[in-house]
Amino acid sequence: MKYFQTFPQIASNDYNGNSITLTNLMVRSELIPSLARNPALFYSYDIQDGDTPEIIAEKYYGDPYRYWIVLYGNQIMDRSEEHTSELQSH
């Protein structure tokens, strides 16, 4: 579809560790501010030294590949341009 050709491509790894290129569908999305302030929608978590979005996703969702949920909850839409060390307790 021509519409998706305007979205940027990002490098990632699949479940087997192979490098793949994905279309970044999240580039135009934004977390609604009122949702970000609603504590009922997020787990509470105190970031530990050495934590990564993958580690947190594994702890909460049982799957490190759900790291995007952690990033999205912290309003990090482009991991390559934002510091994941600034994760908040969501």
The gist of it:
With 90 residues, the protein is α+β, with helices and mostly antiparallel strands.
Shape: flat
What structural category arises from helix and sheet content?
alpha+beta
**Biggest β-sheet: count, sense, barrel?**
2 strands, antiparallel
- Number of DSSP E strands: 2
Provide mean pLDDT, rounded.
78
N-C termini distance: 35 Å
Give the strand order of the largest sheet, numbering strands 1, 2, ... along the chain.
1-2
What is the helical fraction, as a range of percent? 10-25%
Q: What is the gyration radius calculated from CA atoms? A: 14 Å
Low-confidence stretches: none
Percent range for β-strand residues: 5-15%
Number of helices: 3
Helix and strand pattern: EEHHH
3D structure, described in words:
The protein has a two-stranded antiparallel sheet with strand order 1-2. α2 packs across α3. It is of the alpha+beta class and 90 residues long. β1 (9-13) and β2 form a beta hairpin. Helix content is 22%, strand content 11%. It is built from three helices and two strands, in the order ββααα. It has helices spanning 33-36, 53-61, 67-73; strands at residues 9-13, 19-23. The chain is flat, with a radius of gyration of 14 Å. The mean pLDDT is 78.
Topology record:
Layout: E1 9-13, E2 19-23, H1 33-36, H2 53-61, H3 67-73
Antiparallel strand pairs: 1-2
Helix pairs in contact: 2-3
